[in-house]
Design a protein that fits this description.
heterotrimer, A mainly alpha (226), B mainly alpha (228), C alpha/beta (232), A: 226 residues, mainly alpha, 0% strand, B: 228 residues, Four Helix Bundle (Hemerythrin (Met), subunit A), 6 helices
Chain lengths: 226, 228, 232
């Protein structure tokens, strides 16, 4: 399928560019680790307290570190008028968006996979119990953050205050997904099972992902073509 | 809308509000548990309906703009968002005052207040985006897309907070602290004020639309002047 | 079938008309020099043809199809003000990327051919970031012509090119035209353009003031057309 092929080419290009320079990736990982360390000074947490806020802390860290990566997403195309060449090429706006979203998602997952062990080490967490569910939360919630962030990166690509505006725009919109992610992560990182009434958060994440991905795929072409 | 019609509707809205205030203070009795302050809820609750109506209209206008590319839909979208935002702030302020008087705290993470705060942030972002784009066509297009995302998010957030609240129940801003049905006089006042505030909101939206259309004309005249 | 058919195309920025009811028909194989003062709407027109922008009024047909149709975009090559290359990728990686996006068969071989044509084969693995200006310009030409487009859109292509790059571009244009490609070129260097142009179009304040065969008078006196139409 042309859509998938183009998306993968674009994703590959973004990943190759980023992994070669590692600028955003290093910044995001450093930022995440610094916050995790700083947090122990902000609050002097007992094991019990940390367990309660683990999910909240982790997803705040991921969301903020993610902004560093998401900002670059369409911004990297403005140099040398590359965005014009991409939009003029046979790649559809939706495929361009999807490819970039895939690349951003991968980079954000890398940040999370580095941060989690650091967090586990510093705060003595035990999450061996349900690694698959935790992985599912990571996959779904990271996609939620990525979808919103990538679309808004396209919306703000030519603006003066882009770096300031992007976080301000995306965070309120992601709140439902972040709520779900925080609740589930708190349970899973604490080594607990997910009780019946909390499965609704999984459904929320899936619904959120489907709705916003569809909206993004439908509308991004309008944003990119003047 | 013709100026005279607009003015007449504005006067009508003002009269209706004044009449409602009169009935509120002199016609209705004090509420059993809350005393006099419960009257603020006659503004608090209708504000939510008005603001949500505004955001819904803005979302619809945005979809219509993207479908038809007629600038009047863009003008409608920004006007309804601004008026909706104003009513959201009224809702927040009245809720806050009510909570202060009843419970002694300025803020509570009540489901509706939380939702309103998030909504404020989202639509403030919308206005900020509009401000940052100079070209009118790009501005209309991009803010239409943002508005569609915003409304979707607002609806989802409402549901999500509801689910969160069922697990972390807390303070609730409501009339029915007594647990019984509402006095029929109070209930009708609720609807009356909803009507008055909705009419007021419609007038404000119309005024704002005229102002926006004039602004666009001045903008294009300025471009003409530069071109010559 | 014309290469390009514009029918009463208008483009507004807000209420300001950048293009006003432009009607233009260009046959295949022609080379059109698009002239006009700065701000006349030339770049706006080129962007619409490249599929980067949509007009508010009028119809645009490129090779018989809508400008945004995928088959159309695969047949169009663009050389704008920016070089359209990724700094952190190598010359070869850039060409492979665009080749694949345009669906070029044997993309590896074609890319290497173009690198040889533009004398960049020895630096095919060097990053564009390290290239000199002339090298970037030559690579940009390779990118634009790589997929053998049927329609070429060039925005002031000869401006600030060094001699070697000018030769490369002129050779590429000659080859393209010999296989029947159509060229639309915005240019202020009228002398160079007149050597190649079969037709000329003049835009003034968004309106099409002249469109026709390249006038003989312009060979000796490049400013002739501008004066005739009050745009001097």
């Amino acid at each position: 399928m042309h859509f998938l092929r183009s998306s993968l080419i674009v994703a590959g290009k973004d990943l190759r560019s980023e992994l070669r320079t590692k600028e955003s990736l290093n910044a995001a990982i450093s930022f995440a680790i610094v916050i995790l360390v700083l947090f122990s000074f902000a609050v002097d947490p007992s094991a019990e307290q940390t367990r309660e806020i683990a999910g909240g802390l982790l997803w705040l860290v991921f969301a903020f570190a993610g902004a560093l990566i998401l900002n670059r997403s369409f911004a990297r195309e403005t140099a040398n008028d590359c965005l014009d060449v991409l939009v003029a090429s046979p790649v559809s706006g939706a495929a361009l968006f999807f490819g970039k979203a895939l690349a951003n998602w991968s980079l954000l997952i890398i940040v999370e996979l580095v941060s989690l062990p650091v967090f586990g080490l510093l705060y003595n967490m035990n999450w061996a119990r349900s690694p698959l569910l935790l992985a599912a939360v990571l996959v779904l919630a990271t996609w939620a953050v990525t979808v919103i962030g990538t679309v808004f990166s396209a919306l703000t690509v030519n603006l003066r205050l882009r770096e300031l505006m992007l976080p301000v725009l995306i965070y309120p919109m992601m709140i439902p997904a972040l709520m779900a992610a925080m609740r589930l992560t708190t349970l899973l990182v604490g080594g607990e099972a997910v009780p019946a009434e909390d499965w609704i958060w999984f459904r929320l994440l899936i619904g959120f992902d489907i709705i916003f991905t569809s909206l993004a795929l439908a509308l991004v072409e309008v944003v990119l073509v003047g | 809308m013709r100026e005279k019609t607009l003015f007449a509707l504005g006067v009508l809205a003002a009269i209706w509000l004044v009449r409602n205030l009169y009935v509120m203070f002199l016609g209705l009795p004090d509420e059993a548990d809350q005393g006099a302050i419960y009257r603020i809820l006659f503004f608090h609750v209708p504000s939510w309906f008005v603001c949500f109506t505004g955001y819904f209209l803005a979302g619809a206008a945005s979809v219509l703009y993207l479908a038809r590319k007629n600038p009047v839909y863009d003008v409608l979208a920004v006007s309804t968002v601004e008026v909706g935002l104003a009513f959201t702030l009224i809702g927040l302020a009245t809720g806050s005052i009510w909570a202060r008087i009843i419970w002694g705290i300025w803020w509570t993470w009540d489901a509706r207040l939380t939702w309103a705060l998030i909504t404020c942030l989202i639509y403030a972002g919308y206005l900020m985006l509009r401000n940052a784009i100079d070209d009118p066509t790009t501005r209309a297009k991009n803010s239409a897309v943002l508005c569609i995302f915003a409304f979707t998010s607002v609806v989802i957030t409402y549901k999500a907070i509801d689910w969160w609240r069922t697990q972390h129940p807390g303070a609730v801003l409501s009339f029915r602290t007594g647990g019984g049905a509402m006095d029929p006089g109070m209930e009708s006042m609720l609807y009356q004020n909803f009507g008055a505030l909705l009419l007021l909101a419609a007038v404000l939206v119309a005024v704002r639309m005229r102002q926006e259309q004039m602004r666009r004309e001045v903008e294009s005249m300025r471009r003409y002047a530069h071109a010559i | 079938m014309s290469a390009v058919a514009l029918d009463r195309v208008s483009k507004y920025y807000g209420d300001y008309p950048a293009l006003r009811a432009v009607t233009l028909d260009l046959g295949q194989g022609e080379c059109l020099a698009l002239l006009g003062r700065n701000g006349a709407g030339k770049t706006t027109l080129l962007k619409i043809l490249a599929g980067l922008s949509r007009p508010q009024e009028g119809e645009v047909r490129i090779l018989g199809r809508d400008a945004r149709h995928r088959a159309t975009r695969a047949a169009v090559g663009m050389l704008g003000h920016g070089i359209g290359l990724y700094e952190e990728l190598s010359a070869l990686e850039n060409l492979l990327l665009f080749g694949r996006l345009y669906g070029v068969q044997d993309v590896s071989q074609r890319a290497r051919e173009w690198l040889a044509l533009t004398s960049l084969d020895r630096v095919e693995h060097s990053l564009v970031r390290e290239f000199s200006r002339g090298m970037r310009q030559r690579l940009a030409v390779a990118r634009a012509f790589l997929h053998e487009p049927a329609l070429l859109l060039l925005d002031e292509p000869f401006t600030s090119l060094d001699d070697r790059s000018i030769q490369v571009l002129q050779q590429a244009l000659r080859n393209a035209r010999s296989r029947g490609a159509t060229v639309i070129m915005i240019t202020h260097q009228i002398r160079e353009a007149m050597e190649m142009a079969t037709r000329v179009a003049l835009l003034g304040r968004g309106k099409l003031l002249y469109h026709g065969p390249s006038p003989k008078e312009m060979q000796e006196d490049p400013g002739w057309l501008y004066r005739i139409h009050g745009e001097a």
